[in-house]
Design goal:
By secondary structure, the protein is α+β, with helices and mostly antiparallel strands. Helices cover 60% and strands 20% of the residues. It has a four-stranded antiparallel sheet, covered by helices on one side. The model has no long low-confidence stretch (mean pLDDT 77).
């Protein structure tokens, strides 16, 4: 039994097996990367091919098996269509130019992160300033006067004055 094991160990090519395994793993990852970029390329070109000169699919919302809602721009109007196994149904038409511009270019309405952050910081600073003003309004001026008098008394009695020997 031990002799058979030694013979099998001598017949195997361990460095060659490791190389074959690493090559198979490397090939697998190369195929995955190629599949990813190929599907991305097909998706981007497929959208361009589906649009005609006067028609453009703006958005599609899938609702389930063969059920979807589509927004299609035809010349100067946007049509909202519903589709299922039995065909297409027109749900609505959008003719207002400002609404069409908002639908086609939604980025113009959205504030950027920088503007969002500035708005939040200014509102935070306004809240802090209003808190500070509220705290100033809540001050008791009688207490302030008594503290001032006490500080003057301590100064007059040389409580704050230090001698040279005390500083060392």
């Amino acid at each position: 039994m031990l002799i058979n094991y030694v013979v099998l160990a001598n017949d195997s090519n361990i460095p060659g097996d490791i190389f074959k395994t690493l090559f198979a793993i490397f090939s697998f990852f190369i195929i995955l990367i190629l599949a990813y970029y190929t599907s991305k390329f097909i998706a981007s070109n497929g959208r361009k091919l589906n649009n005609g000169r006067n028609m453009e699919i703006i958005d599609i919302l899938n609702l389930g098996n063969n059920k979807r809602i589509m927004m299609v721009k035809i010349i100067d109007k946007i049509y909202i269509l519903g589709s299922n196994n039995s065909g297409f149904n027109m749900i609505d038409t959008i003719e207002d130019e400002t609404t069409i511009k908002k639908i086609i270019d939604p980025q113009e309405d959205k504030p950027g992160f920088e503007n969002f952050l500035k708005d939040k910081l200014t509102s935070f600073n306004k809240n802090k300033q209003s808190e500070y003003k509220d705290n100033l309004n809540d001050l008791d001026y009688n207490k302030i006067d008594s503290l001032k008098k006490r500080i003057e008394y301590l100064k007059e009695n040389h409580v704050f004055a230090r001698k040279k020997d005390e500083t060392k």
